[in-house]
Write a structure and sequence with these properties.
By secondary structure, this protein is an alpha/beta fold. The protein is built from 13 helices and seven strands. 51% of the residues lie in helices and 14% in strands.
């Protein structure tokens, strides 16, 4: 497989145009992965080149049968990703449009790694923590928006129960727990939640000590996913922007950084001891 360029997506919370651009960006990544031009994809799907071009640019809504037609041309995994991403076009509330393409990949991954230095990873957040971090969002959200975000994040977490054969690895900075977002009670419920989830055989949670002289996580959070056909993708997110990373060199760099972070973080057993100690100190 040759080099495939990364795809950047910009946008706020769930605008229709952003949703279409998300779908178009996903289609382009899958087309590039298959080594097809727009013309070749259009011919394989039975659409005009102009039709496919408009879908990829986010200016035309994808047809309902696109995922079924894509299975023979792009493969079964691509078809599932397109199907789930298309569904998100009509489920705008709760998930930021710039995140939806990664949420689809997340549901299909056989291995998923996350290093976070901003907030506890979304898949590990209990409901009280989800609610309090969304209450602090600026510009302020109305109650309906907060409820939508809470529901969407809890729905994402179903993957932890539905995929017992997927390996989940998480590295969380110690300072995120010491900050006590929402107060002692919220932090206590968060630690209890982490301890309970960490008991599962397919989930490993590591805490990164607050003192680390040669910390390699200064570039920010890291998300990595291994697909069912054993291809690796990365994801990064900043203020009002995100980047789906498929370039082999860039993904390899993220893997190298994550491996080093994992070696620097506390072991799973030492993490449990620290979490129990922190809970006792609250």
């Amino acid at each position: 497989m040759g080099k495939v360029g990364n795809v950047s997506l910009y946008g706020g919370e769930a605008e229709a145009g952003d949703s279409l651009k998300t779908f178009g960006a996903m289609l382009k990544v899958l087309r590039d992965e298959a080594g097809l031009t727009q013309e070749a994809l259009a011919e394989g799907l039975g659409y005009s080149h102009d039709h496919i071009s408009k879908i990829e640019r986010g200016v035309r809504f994808p047809p309902r049968d696109l995922d079924k037609l894509a299975e023979d041309v792009l493969g079964p995994l691509a078809a599932r990703l397109l199907k789930e991403t298309r569904r998100s076009l009509t489920r705008k509330a709760g998930l930021a449009s710039r995140f939806r393409h990664w949420a689809v990949i997340e549901k299909e991954a056989v291995t998923l790694y996350a290093y976070e230095c901003r907030v506890v990873p979304g898949l590990l957040q209990p409901e009280p923590y989800i609610r309090v971090i969304n209450e602090a969002v600026l510009p302020p959200l109305v109650e309906e928006q907060i409820e939508q975000r809470v529901a969407a994040r809890l729905e994402r977490q179903v993957v932890l129960n539905e995929r017992p054969h997927t390996y989940f690895g998480f590295i969380v900075e110690q300072m995120l727990l010491e900050r006590q977002v929402g107060g002692a009670e919220i932090t206590r419920s968060l630690i209890d939640h982490l301890l309970a989830i960490g008991e599962r055989r397919n989930i490993e949670i590591q805490v990164m000590p607050r003192r680390m002289e040669k910390h390699v996580g200064s570039a920010g959070s890291i998300y990595l996913a291994e697909t069912v056909d054993h291809k690796w993708l990365g994801y990064s997110e900043g203020q009002q922007s995100s980047n789906l990373i498929s370039d082999l060199t860039d993904v390899g760099t993220l893997q190298q950084r994550y491996r080093k972070l994992s070696s620097q973080a506390l072991s799973h057993e030492a993490t449990v001891e620290l979490l129990e100690q922190m809970r006792g100190d609250l």
